[in-house]
Amino acid sequence: MSLQIFGLAVSRGVAIGRAVLVASSRVDVDHYFVEGPAIDAELVRLDTARVTVEGEFEALKRDLPADAPAELAALLDVHLMLVNDEALIGAARQWITERHYNAEWALSAQLEVLARQFDEMNDPYLRERKADLEQVVERLLRSLGHGSPLSSLNGGPGGSPVRPRDFGGEDPLVLVASDISPADMLQFKRSVFTGFVTDVGGKTSHTAIVARSLDIPAVVGARQASSLIRQDDWVIIDGDAGLVIVDPSPIVLEEYRFRQRQSELERERLARLRHTPAVTLDGERIELLANIELPGDAPAAMESGAQGVGLVRSEFLFMNRGGKQPSEDEQYEAYKSVVTAMNGLPVTIRTVDIGADKPMDRMTSHELRHETQLNPALGLRAIRWSLSEPGMFRQQLRAILRASAHGRVRLLIPMLAHLMLPTFLRHFDFVSIGTNDLIQYTLAIDRADEAVSHLYDPWHPAILRLVADTIHFSRLGGKSVCVCGEMAGDVAFTEILLAMGLRSFSMHPTQIAAVKQRILRADTRRLASRLHDILASDDPERTAKQAFGATAGALAEA
């Protein structure tokens, strides 16, 4: 019988595949795929760990004092039985050979299966034996030397990058987790999964933003999804409706497969606009730039038809490094590779934006003092963090300056949050509006907290007026202005941003074609004539739909 789980729709599209559960609340381990000879090596690792733990239990039992309670010996007998139980070890071998999981992942996957069986037992005594199982698995994992979740999705010790159909038959996979960190999302980016579901998160949490930028169907804030969905369940992720369907009927499955095919056709149609200039019907040229996370993303930006890079998120160079800071030379080479890949087009590099939903491995005693901030979103983050670490900040600035010798580089300082625009304009050459944080701080909404995420409203009158004023006064002061937040890549806001006078948008490369399509159909003069009514409205979203819908109708008639 199928199960429906509702969450927040954060990335459009449909994904269908077998569930892969990671980041268990019980154990956090490395998750990576193995292939070829590495499969046999993982089986040997598993058996070696089993023999080692078995020996530990036997030694403990042998060394029990004569007056030890009989219950201790009985408990060790239970543990010895479990460490040799086919339901645990035999099934873990199957996860390795059939699904190509590494040994740690195989053990944790089978632990989830068995733990649920214990939870469903009526006998309280038998239910409590789950703790014995967990202890045995923890010992096995310690023997294997396990690490953190998702740290090696594309290959860990003995593993290598695996393409979607290199393992486990022909079935596509979807990722199910309690949560996925931004750094882990970078691993996800190059992995085999076609979509993901998380228990927590909001529409504008960084995880959701990355999912949209990767054009991967996703649902977040699905509460108990990771406990309701079992390993290998067939799952449909409806990223448009925020719906997850577990074990769908054949009719529902076919319906969603049809929708998948329709989405693929739409992507193909949009791809034809790749090299079409972004010019409105009234002749206004619009600059469409790309946001990227890593140097390797630059070719995708060029392929999308981007006219440059409007945002390089440099903080991703600092993540997943075990506390080791990237050197000046390493940063220089990374920035240089982006600049040269863009072949003379402008590249905007943002200094490190660490904090809030993008934490970094702690490296200094100064940072350690701030690790337990009560509200990291209001604490030491972005430019505040850089100024608190002048050595690190100067090093990054030197690396960016050196890279600028190889092309057109613009330096972006993140989160100047006090909105003193007239003062800022005297000192800066351009303005970039990060709408995600602008909304969060203006409305006092934690965008990563699903409990209040429904209050996060980019259509709020205060937000629209702030954006409109920023664009107006920047242009009045002769300074270029770009929107690089989520609003730039959301086609629902394309017309109103054009009406405000915005002529530069920056977004993930996958979003450029859809925004360009809206631009090609727009007349900025007619759009601007309706802006006053929208900004004066108590319900700007409804008013904008009415006004721009009418504009679209008038253009069609013309």
Compile the SSE list and pairings.
Layout: E1 3-6, E2 8-11, E3 14-21, H1 37-62, H2 70-83, H3 86-99, H4 103-119, H5 124-128, H6 130-144, E4 173-177, H7 182-189, E5 193-198, H8 206-213, E6 218-220, H9 225-228, E7 234-238, E8 243-246, H10 250-271, E9 287-292, H11 298-303, E10 309-313, H12 328-341, E11 347-350, H13 365-368, H14 383-388, H15 390-403, E12 409-412, H16 421-425, E13 430-433, H17 435-443, H18 461-476, E14 480-483, H19 486-489, H20 494-499, E15 504-507, H21 509-520, H22 524-528, H23 531-536, H24 540-557
Parallel strand pairs: 3-4, 4-5, 5-6, 9-10, 9-15, 10-11, 11-12, 13-14
Antiparallel strand pairs: 1-8, 2-6, 3-7, 7-8
Helix pairs in contact: 1-2, 1-3, 1-6, 2-6, 3-4, 4-6, 12-15
Biggest sheet: strands side by side, in what order? 1-8-7-3-4-5-6-2
Quick one: CATH superfamily of the domain at 3-23 and 157-265?
Answer: Phosphohistidine domain
Helix content: 40-55%
Q: Per CATH, which architecture of the domain at 3-23 and 157-265? A: 3-Layer(bba) Sandwich
First CA to last CA: what distance?
53 Å
How many separate helices? Answer: 24
Structural class: alpha/beta
Q: Work out the strand percent.
A: 5-15%
How many runs of DSSP E, i.e. beta strands?
A: 15
CATH topology of the domain at 3-23 and 157-265: Glucose Oxidase, domain 1
Radius of gyration: 26 Å
Task: Please provide a written account of the structure.
- 46% of the residues lie in helices and 13% in strands.
- The chain is of the alpha/beta class.
- Among the domains are: 3-23 and 157-265, Phosphohistidine domain (Glucose Oxidase, domain 1, 3-Layer(bba) Sandwich); 37-144, Orthogonal Bundle (Enzyme I, Chain A, domain 2), CATH 1.10.274.10; 417-505 and 520-558, TIM Barrel (Alpha-Beta Barrel), CATH 3.20.20.60.
- The strands form three sheets. Strands 1-8-7-3-4-5-6-2 form an eight-stranded mixed sheet.
- It has helices at residues 37-62, 70-83, 86-99, 103-119, 124-128, 130-144, 182-189, 206-213, 225-228, 250-271, 298-303, 328-341, 365-368, 383-388, 390-403, 421-425, 435-443, 461-476, 486-489, 494-499, 509-520, 524-528, 531-536, 540-557, and strands at 3-6, 8-11, 14-21, 173-177, 193-198, 218-220, 234-238, 243-246, 287-292, 309-313, 347-350, 409-412, 430-433, 480-483, 504-507.
- The chain is elongated.
- Helix 3 (86-99) crosses helix 4 (103-119), helix 4 (103-119) runs antiparallel to helix 6 and helix 12 runs parallel beside helix 15 (390-403).
- The longest helix has 26 residues, at 37-62.
